[in-house]
Amino acid sequence: MNQQAMTNEENYRFDVAGYMIVPGALSAAELKACNQALDQLGPVEGPLRWTSPICNALHALREHPVLLGYVEQICGEGFRLDDSPRLVGECTEKSPLMGGSEWVDWSRAYRQYNGIRFCQGVRAFWALTDMGEGDGGLVVVSASHNSTVEAPQDLIDGSDEMGLVEEPVLQAGDLMICADSLMRGLRPWRGEGPLRLIECGYISAGVRPGADSEIEGEERAMPEWTADLDEVQRLVLHNPNRSYPPPVVHSDGEKVWLAEEPGIFHPSIFIRDPDSKIDEKEFYHWDLCGHLVLRGVMDEDWLRAANEAIDANPDRISHGGSAAGDSNPLAGSGVGRSSMGDPWGLPAPHGEPFQRMIADPALVQRLNWIMGSGFECMQCSGFLSAKGSSGHFLHSPATPSRVTNHYRQQNGRVYAEYLNVAWQLRDVKREDGGFVCVPGTHKTHYPMPDGIRTCENEMGLVKHVAMQAGDVLIFLASAQAHGAYPWMGEENRRMIFFQYRSRNLYAP
Which side of the chain, N or C, has fewer Cβ within a 10 Å radius? Predict the structure, then answer.
């Protein structure tokens, strides 16, 4: 195909978020022809499989050169159409989210291994009308294609969106491509006119077609010798004509038997431990994003003591230079960043509010399941920047090339070797600036684009984290891309910063 190679920015966005938008993929003439076809067809829903010439423009979407060029690069050569174009129907209430937790299904998985991308399936969405912010329609959970933690049921059914559900903004003629494992769904349509969104699906070579696929294998007779097999033996034997899902065969090690209904049986060595005290929503948010906020850990007395301790020791505050690097958006107004070294060592009683932070019960509870026991607190400092002080360019390695950068999840346990913990002594609103990150980057394998590093082209991926005084932010020190916007709050920024190392790292 003559498709131009995907840029690093496109690869980075798709790898981090699980989806990308190609603006203006349809020409004005193509867009007009598609809408005229829908006008003539009238109210329709579902696959567009009619042979009428009316549908020619819509059928052409499945083999559009722009789309196929991207699919080949994402899924590899030999990809196949799995689901014909269908008109996404307007819903009247929240639909359950699908995808996300389905990483165990290799036929639809997204993985990076030895520098090679394995995306076994993609979904393509053609916007034939504008879909603005707040209009409803298609929603996604960014980065969920890489999740290795079962999604909370509250997130799936929409009763608690956890601040993770996003509505992609699309203009008529745009193309959105997402990994088939990306969590997605529909929300009630509130835009002008009918929702006109065409969806189709593709799979890579050698994976199982979906239940609604038009791919048909050649009907072949089974060998004669299979007539002597019992029912279970025949069902276990490869059969090119078998339906999906196949019957479930159980075994206790001594006998086998069929389940009453077909489905999926996928036993795991991981068994939830009710004594672990792990909040499943926190676990999911952490694994998905690479950061977690504990709300309201500090009470008013504790906050007051910490702020009074800083006020009482102005001589311990130092003023440094800019950390914005070559970034104009992060430069601020030229005011240097201010800090306080080792606030836990302030003269009594002023060090006590910071010493309490070292092994706070709420923090230790999370560190035990994020890092495992035996962790060490390595350092403490205070960020006390005034209005106009510079931000910090975004930084993190592209791959876990050092042990300090490692993040992995295995058998229901997460392993993070190096963590930052930031205690907020004052409110942090978006307009104030402060901490930003790129959720999902602790699992990416592509170099960070310069536009992300400098925030000159955020690609819709850089997220500001709003917090209140008393909140505690935990984030991956080396694996997640993070930095800070310039501080623009009227009150000085007050954040106490700790670093923790796991028992696996050498610390002389």
Answer: C
